[in-house]
Design goal:
Blueprint (H helix, E strand, L loop, with lengths): L1 H12 L7 H11 L4 H19 L7 H9 L1
């Protein structure tokens, strides 16, 4: 999920991504559904979830935290 968000941010901010044309086309279509601000916010939240999971900083499971992210 984090990788996909990073790719979408890359599509929004750069025209020099090197990947298969069909992948770039799909990413551009997906990226058009989000603002750059929203993508950056999601990336930041995923980073915090990752950190909490790796440092036992949360009482919630990964699944529960991702469910809350979606809401």
């Amino acid at each position: 999920l984090t990788r996909q968000i990073r790719l979408l941010i890359g599509v929004k901010t750069s025209n020099e991504l090197t990947m298969a044309p069909f992948m770039l086309s799909k990413l551009k279509k997906q990226a058009s559904l989000f603002t750059l601000e929203k993508l950056l916010q999601l990336h930041s939240q995923l980073l915090l979830i990752d950190l909490a999971q790796k440092t036992s900083g949360s009482r919630l499971s990964l699944e529960q935290q991702l469910d809350l992210l979606v809401v």
